[in-house]
Amino acid sequence: VQGPVTVTVTGAAGQIGYALLFRIASGHLLGADVPVKLRLLEITPALKAAEGTAMELADGAFPLLQSVDISDDPRVAFDGANVALLVGARPRTKGMERGDLLEANGGIFKPQGAAINEVAADDIKVLVVGNPANTNALIAQAHAPDVPAERFTAMTRLDHNRAISQLAAKLDVPVTAIKKLTIWGNHSATQYPDLFHAEVNGKVAAEQVDEAWLRDTFIPTVAKRGAAIIEARGASSAASAASAAIDHVFTWVNGTAEGDWTSAAIPSDGSYGVPEGLISSFPVTAKDGKFSIVPGLEIDAFSRERIDASVAELGEERDAVRGLGLI
Ligand code: NAX
């Protein structure tokens, strides 16, 4: 039997945290036989709410949950962490420019990266959910020089799951019929969900839908799904985001299935014309606790244009945080 895994969740009192913690406690993050120690990081005013969530976790009497600790100090919360889910972030508020947003998030992800560097376990794996996720991951990574760069990842699995679901509904097939879907680029409206390499029951997905639907319905529906959820629910995606975070880490730890891949934002090695070091979404496989970019896919002009646009946005975000001295 495996020893307990320490999982730190930031923004634990938020709405994604509320949906996420109970799935972690019930064994969905790592596996049904892996005991978990939870560490919750919150800002001081939200500690009481986090305590309320911890009370409910206790009331779940989860067999795998060994402990729940709460702190407002990153150096306490990340101590010995094997997995860190960075969910808490500063949202964009009215009148906020991109520079202000990046700066506010730098104030969160810089000290968290430094604390991870100092006190996390040697095998730490980091998933950034809090937006702007790719660039927040870059900031945290820059302040954790002793942690291998590839341990910093950002979440595009929700976009990936949304794309699978939209395509499955369109073709009236179960989601399990769809393989090799890819989200490329930034977790933002410029992201590119790719159907040219995706397969439906073994056949190329793009050939089973008409081009106008792919271009004018599918791509914008996936990219703008977050806004549609806010419009309908009056609140942003929470349970689906938590579920995607669970999927991302479960896949990272337990691997992808033979003949399939998933999407994750990981540091680029220069593949597919994405500048080295940018944390961009790629088609990835996972094995032995490591993500690898799927090599050798042919990229046609339609896809090239869209990947390049999203990657250019990531480059601009990187330049902006560089200019602010955040990386
Ligand atoms: P909430 O506002 O409900 O919760 C955020 C929590 O983070 C709050 O409890 C807040 O006190 C806490 N927090 C703020 N600063 C912190 C810090 N320095 N240390 C620890 N905790 C801190 O937001 P929620 O709906 O849970 O969303 C969280 C983040 O996920 C947002 O940035 C959101 O934009 C992002 N999302 C990312 C998605 C993705 O696919 N990558 C999709 C869903 C979601 O929009």
UniProtKB/TrEMBL annotation:
NAD(+) binds at residues 11-17, 105, 112, 129-131. InterPro entries: L-lactate/malate_DH, Lactate/malate_DH_C, Lactate/malate_DH_N, Lactate_DH/Glyco_Ohase_4_C, Malate_DH_AS, Malate_DH_type2, NAD(P)-bd_dom_sf. The active site is at residue 187. It comes from the Bacteria. Residues 156-318 form the Lactate/malate dehydrogenase C-terminal domain. It catalyses: (S)-malate + NAD(+) = oxaloacetate + NADH + H(+). Keywords: NAD, Oxidoreductase, Tricarboxylic acid cycle. Pfam families: Ldh_1_C (PF02866), Ldh_1_N (PF00056). Its EC number is 1.1.1.37. Substrate binds at residues 92, 98, 131, 162. Residues 6-146 form the Lactate/malate dehydrogenase N-terminal domain. The keyword ATP-binding does not apply. It is an enzyme of class 1 (oxidoreductase). PROSITE patterns: MDH (PS00068). Transmembrane segments: none annotated. HAMAP family: Malate_dehydrog_2. Catalyzes the reversible oxidation of malate to oxaloacetate. Belongs to the LDH/MDH superfamily. MDH type 2 family. This is Malate dehydrogenase. It comes from Cryptosporangium japonicum.
